[in-house]
Structures are given as structure tokens and as C-alpha cells.
Amino acid sequence: MGNDVFEITVNFIKMVVIFLMMVQLVPLLVWVERRACAYMQNRFGPNRVGPLGLTQLLADAVKFITKEEFAPGNGNKFMFYAAPVIALIPATLALNAIPLSIPINVASFEWLGHTWGPYIFKFQGYDFNIGIVFVLAVSSLAAYSLLLAGYGSANKFAMYGALRASAQTISYELAMGLSLVGILLLFNTFSFSEIVTAQSGPLSFYFFGKVITVASVPNWGIIYQPVGAVLLMAAMFAETNRLPFDLPEAEGELVAGYHTEYGGIKMNMFYIGEYGHMLVASALMVIFYFGGCTIYPWLTPDTVNAWFANYGGTTASILTAFVLFAVMMAKILFFLWFFVWVRWTLPRFRYDQLMDLGWKTMLPWALGNTIVTAVVIFIMRTKW
Amino acid sequence: MLMEAIGFYAIALFLIFFAFKTISSANPIHCACYLVLTMIGLAGVFYQLEAQFIAGVQMIVYAGAVMVLFVMVLMLFDIKTELRAFSRGLISGFLKIFSAAILAGFALGAATNSIGIVDEGPPKVMSTNVTRDLSILLYTKYLYAFEALGVMLLVVAVGVVCVSRIKGGTHAKH
Fold this sequence. Notes:
heterodimer; A: 384 residues; mainly alpha; two-stranded antiparallel sheet; 13 helices; 6 strands; 7% strand; globular; B: 174 residues; Four Helix Bundle (Hemerythrin (Met), subunit A); 0% strand
């Protein structure tokens, strides 16, 4: 956590702020989702409460919180109440491990008659050197929330939803993990910040042992790994249980799937978990394939830092980090919009189509992508 | 050092408590859920031993995939019959006491034989890249064992498919 009181306090506040950021984005995303859906279906959507209908969400929140609290009589009470809480945990833990900008360097300063040593604050809750494995590990626990919800409700439809959710999650987790192997081989690291640093320069790669650099094109992962990017995106839709993969809550067949018995703030917590997963998925897409918080020729750590050169070390570092954070958020918001866009564009898969796509299409493609990437990297990096 | 000790004993208590609950609770679903918590605790222990990669893989494979399958299959059981089958009878009672005795014997034997592990060995060389070291070991020193294990898992997978397709079931050939 840190070496003294100041560092520990700041690190703790960071974690809470990232969690709150995730929770606060949800109402906004729900508004975007409802307005976008209405726009695509030639309706108005919520536009009465406040400017553009924005305060509709406040009204909704009050409604959710003040609703009557109930639990099914034959269900398992503990599991029923635990499931919505567990829905929040994986997304929060994963989002905290993702760097949203470059680290802030704070020079040593005097405060309260004490010299506080130089600090480096990472723009994330905590930093593991195997961050990617950690994010995959905690997001694989997301299935338990749906399983417990389905089992605790003592309801057939909730149970079907839970079983579908777990089968789907397991099937697509494999393809998701394998689609990432290509990018890991390419950048040769398990650390998010190293991947972002590698992508913040010009396009440069080995061509039969010689380094070739193309100026003015960023060194983004999508250029090397288009197949991996498409596979990851599809797997992310399945992992977040969004349309076209929302079979766990297919309302035409299963009433509302795993949250049939939930109402009020408990159901809202499932929504927060789902949108949190979308946030994590978008952040992963941005970091692996779209340069993280940098856009090479204009917005890299060095160029942005040069804008603020007059302000002195600490202030310049803080301003740089926040400008790059804005860049990162802009990219993440684009992918969140993409999630919403796809949801109201594509119809739902049939269950056998879902399984065929996962096991017979995406898994072989991901395996092939891994093998081809490994062979190509080996040939290109050998001196000829 | 103190923080490490506190962390270790906290995780150890967590692990022992949930491992005990895994074998002592009557409902299979609850057992599986406790086992998930045990797996997560185990990942914590690996993390404390600076084996971050193993900790992550433990979470992904066991807690994330294997146990999800377990819980999913267990939810399809008729738990009332299972409870009746496992909770009564002279033979099952005898088996319970017998296995408890064996377990106690193992625990005692392990405790008396493992004093050497606690002693500090030579100072370990910590590399910054644990994953790289691990993969180099896997593909050089332990290559044979690694590949043999892979082949064994493949055999198991093929065997399971064969067994499940012999007769009956939704995929049976008529």
C-alpha cells in the first residue's frame, strides 16, 4: 500500500474513487442505452425529466432504493442476498488493476512540518506485474454471481438462466484467454503498463531480423493482431452477457433469466455489475489493441508533458496524467457506445448457434492465431 | 515480516475453516461453494509465496472454470435423495469415522515430518520475471513431465467423451 501515511491514504482513496467512478458511470450508460435504443427504433425515449431526460436516472435510483424488499420463501436466503453483492466484486477488482493513465511523479514537499518523500502514484488501484492474469482470474469469478442468483431464487426460469450463464461463460473464457496470447507474445509481457508503453511509439517491427520503423503510424496492437481483436471483442460480448449473447436473461423464453425474482436495488446491482464488466472489457480492448491512454503522433506522455513544461515537475505530471486519462476515457466511451450499438442492432443467437460459435469457430481461430503469431514472431526476430 | 505473518495466518485460518466446511456440510451445493472459497484462499497462499502466475492460474482454472462446472452439475441433482444416500446407514457411518481417522493420521504424520520445511534454506534468488523463469523451467527441465501430463489429460478427455456416448443420453446414436 505504501511506506507512510500520505502514500497509504492516497492509494486507499484511489481505489474508492475508481469504484465510485464505475458505479457513477452506470446511470449515464443506462441513459445512453435507453436514448440510443429509442433513437434506433424511431422513438423519443426518456426525455421528460430534466434536460434531455438526464434526471430520469435520479428518479429511477430513488424508485429502486425505496422499493419493497422481498425474497422468495423457498429459496436460499443467504445466496439470494449474496448474489447481487458478488456481482459487483469481480468488475471492481478487475477495473482497479487496469492502469487508466500514466503514473504521477510527486516530488518531495514540506507539509505540516514534515518532509514527505518523492512518490510515484500509479493511475490504478494496485499494480501487479502479472496484471493481465489477475484481471482474467477475477473476471472468471463473475459466473458465481449468476449461479448463486439462479440457485437462491428457487425458480425454474432463474435456474435455467444460471445454467446457461455458466455454460456460456466457460465456453467463451477459453477463446478469450487464447485470443490474448498473440498480443502477449508480441509485446513479451504480462504487465498492462508495459504494453501501453510499447504502443506509445511509432510502428516498429522486425522484418527478417531487421527493425523497420514507420513514422506517423502508431504501434497499436490492432495492426499486428486484427484476428485477436475481433475474437476478444466477440468473447467480451459473451462474457458480459450482452446481446447478441444474452441467453441467461432471454426475456422471450425465460421471463428474465437469473434475475427473475429480483427487484429494486438488488436487481440494480446486477446492472451495475454488468456495466462494470462492459467498462473492464472496453478498457482491455483499448489497452491491448488501441494504444491505451496514448495516441502516438500527438498525445504521448512526452508530447503532453511538453505542453505543461512551465508548471514545474509535480503539477506538470499531474496535468499530463489527467489529459491522458481523458484520452483513455474517450476511447473507453467509444467502446461502451459500441456495446450499446450492437445490442440494438443484432438479434439474439439460438443456443446451439452460441455453442457452435464458441467451440467450433472461435476456439479454432484463436488457436490458429496463437500458432501463426508464434511462428511468425520466431521467424521475423531471427537474424537472417 | 510481521505483516507477512499476519497475512499468512489469516489466510491459513480462512483456508482451514472453509476446507472443514467443505467436508462437513451436508448440502453438496454448499460444499462446492465452500470449495470455491478454499481455492481462492489457496491462490492467496500462492501469491504470498511470490508465485503470482500460479496464483492467477489457480483462480482461472480451478475457481473460474472447474468449480463453475461442478456447481452447475450439482445444481441439476435432486439434493433430497443425495442427502438421504449420504447421511444414514451403518456402512457410511463407518466410512466416515474410518476416513476421519486416516485424515488425522496423515495430518499427524505431515506435522512430524515437515519440521524441516520451516527452517530457512539458502537465500533464494528472486527474479523480477517469475513467469519467464517458470516457463523456461517447464520447457527445459520438466519438459517430459509437462508433456506426459498433457497427453494424460487428452486421454482423459477422449475417455470421458467415449463413456458419455456409449448409451443413452441426448447425444446417443440410435
